Amino acid sequence: MFQNKCPTVDVLEAATRAGRISRRIELHLARCAKCAAVVSQIKDSAGFETLIRTTGADDLDHETRLRISGICRKATRRIAPPPR
Ligand SMILES: [Zn+2]
């Protein structure tokens, strides 16, 4: 299935977040740096989300605060103006 073709990001994300990376995907990741990088990014995001959910605002370290504020700035820029 994924022998030569890359799985979609949705497939990689669902498998990674569920912690169920199939043998086929595993074999693909061993040969495809692009998908391996996507999975690594998904794992990083998932870990970051868990950190935010489980840590109180007062306990966040400086790096995490910077990362959150960067994400919020980007998200704010992408908010579409409300329809009139
Ligand atoms: Zn790939």
Describe this structure as you would to a colleague:
The protein has 84 residues and is mainly α. It has one domain. It has four helices and no strands. The longest helix is centred in the middle third of the chain and has 22 residues. The model has no long low-confidence stretch (mean pLDDT 88). Zinc ion binds next to helix 3.
Briefly summarize what is shown.
With 84 residues, the protein is mostly helical. It is 68% helix and 0% strand.
Instruction: Classify the secondary structure makeup into a structural class.
Output: mainly alpha
Mean pLDDT: 88
Biggest sheet character:
none
Indicate the radius of gyration in whole angstroms: 17 Å
Number of strands: 0
* Through-space gap between termini: 47 Å
**Element order: H for helix, E for strand:** HHHH
> Which outline best applies?
extended
Q: Tell me roughly what share of residues is in helical segments.
A: 55-70%
Total number of helical segments?
A: 4
Question: Which ligands occur here?
Answer: zinc ion
How much of the sequence is in beta strands?
A: under 5%
Number of domains: 1
Low-confidence stretches: none
List the helices and strands and how they pair.
Layout: H1 9-18, H2 23-31, H3 33-54, H4 62-77
Bound molecules: zinc ion (ZN).
Zinc ion is lined by residues 6, 28, 32, 34-35.
